[in-house]
Design goal:
about 425 residues; mainly alpha
């Protein structure tokens, strides 16, 4: 292959965001870039909201402990998946092909697309309502505002990982400023003794398991797609250092501030709580970038997942990333305009049951089974394990047992290793 042909091939791969191949060394990012992109992704207004919601229903120590446990689990998942991505240079969807098989991995990719579209739309709907409530003079209807907001978020996602990095350098400082200012405002307005001694009303209290589940369930999707960024790391320790820091700062840090803000003001709504602290306008300004850094990542990862859905079609997955990002953004904008928040609970509950087994499958395949199924259409061992893991997660959720997402993940992880050792020689003997 001539030098000119290599350049053309690399340019094509770049336009596809290396959807089906390892990221080349020439495209790898520094520790600073990986850290800021990962942290930018985890930083979201929803973290403050989740913290405030749980904080209003649990005493301070229990709420922080539930938050810490949930985030430790997320750190483990994000780091293990991130290291796999570093070693292979591959995205989540391609890694899933190794466990699920080529065609059946499209099922997961489709679920990832639905999950991303849902979260983008919900955040657009919520943010548009925040604009309307903050600025009473705002003349544009919420539905149209939602479409405009998604269009803005898509601008960085269309430009691939470079666009994500640029916006993250803006969003991370904004979130840190908001966190610090909230901490100071609590100290000045109410004092921390109010927070430390907070006891919620008995009729609204939730269990430790429910609190932990709330924190894990809100970000398990984000951990599953962490390979989409981690595959750009130059060194293994960039992931081993970057993923835990991103979760600790972007998730745990913001969620704890959300807990404290709610308990200091006795308000379950983060927006109302910060307004009570006199921070309404600042919250809105910081929220612009806090939301943007997360939703452009969701558009980006959904584009890669959609590429995998198209892999075994006549298109062969050779659609430019920018085109796919526009398709995802358009779908999210339409859903947002229809009032996505109204459908949040059933969609999130369904996805929180279906998605957690996937990290268990990918980690078990890479570290223990080590017999890639990407050349098979369907790996029935993985499909059966996925179904069982999903069923276990559903039962755990219905019975409020531990952290359902983690239970589902661990059961899937162990079962896939055992069944693969026992059945691969029969079901996958042609590999």
């Amino acid at each position: 292959m001539s030098g000119e042909e290599k350049k053309e091939l690399e340019a094509e791969s770049s336009e596809l965001e290396y959807a089906f191949e390892s990221v080349p060394d020439s495209a790898k990012k520094s520790l600073g870039s990986i850290l800021v992109i990962l942290t930018g992704y985890t930083i979201s207004l929803s973290n403050f909201v989740s913290g405030a919601t749980v904080g209003s229903k649990m005493p301070f120590k229990e709420a922080v402990a539930a938050c810490a446990l949930g985030n430790i689990m997320l750190i483990i998942v994000a780091t293990l998946l991130g290291i796999i991505a570093f070693r292979t240079g591959l995205s989540t969807s391609v890694l899933a092909r190794k466990a699920l098989g080529a065609r059946s991995s499209a099922i997961l990719s489709f679920l990832l697309v639905i999950s991303a579209v849902n979260w983008i739309a919900v955040n657009a709907d919520t943010f548009s309502n925040l604009i309307k409530s903050t600025f009473g003079w705002w003349p544009i209807p919420v539905a149209i505002t939602s479409i405009l907001v998604v269009a803005i978020w898509a601008q960085s996602a269309i430009r691939g990982v470079k666009g994500l990095e640029i916006v993250s350098w803006l969003g991370v400082p904004c979130a840190l400023v908001l966190t610090i200012v909230c901490a100071i405002a609590i100290s000045v307005k109410t004092g921390y003794s109010t927070v430390f001694n907070f006891i919620p009303a008995s009729d609204v209290q939730i269990s430790f398991a429910s609190g932990s589940t709330s924190f894990v369930g809100a970000w398990i999707f984000g951990c599953i797609v962490s390979p989409d960024v981690c595959r750009y790391a130059k060194k293994r320790n960039h992931v081993a250092f970057g993923a835990p820091i991103a979760v600790a700062v972007g998730l745990f840090g913001l969620e704890v501030i959300g807990i404290m803000t709610a308990q200091a003001t006795n308000q379950s709504s983060f927006v109302e709580a910060t307004a009570a602290l006199g921070l309404g306008v600042l919250v809105f300004i910081c929220a612009i970038f806090c939301v943007w850094t997360t939703q452009d990542n969701n558009i980006y990862s959904a584009g890669l997942a959609l590429q995998n859905v198209m892999k075994d079609t006549p298109l062969e997955g050779k659609v430019k990333h920018a085109v796919l990002a526009v398709i995802i953004a358009t779908a999210a904008a339409i859903f947002a305009a229809a009032g996505a928040t109204k459908y949040l609970l059933p969609v999130v509950q369904t996805l929180s049951i279906l998605l957690p087994p996937i990290p268990g499958l990918i980690i078990a395949e890479f570290y223990f089974v080590k017999k890639s199924k990407e050349n098979k259409a369907i790996n029935w061992v993985a499909i059966i394990t996925w179904i069982i893991g999903t069923a276990v997660g559903y039962v755990a959720l219905q019975n409020n047992f531990l952290i359902p997402a983690i239970v589902s993940m661990i059961v899937t992880f162990v079962l896939y290793i055992v069944l693969s050792k026992c059945l691969d020689g029969v079901v996958n003997k042609d590999l």
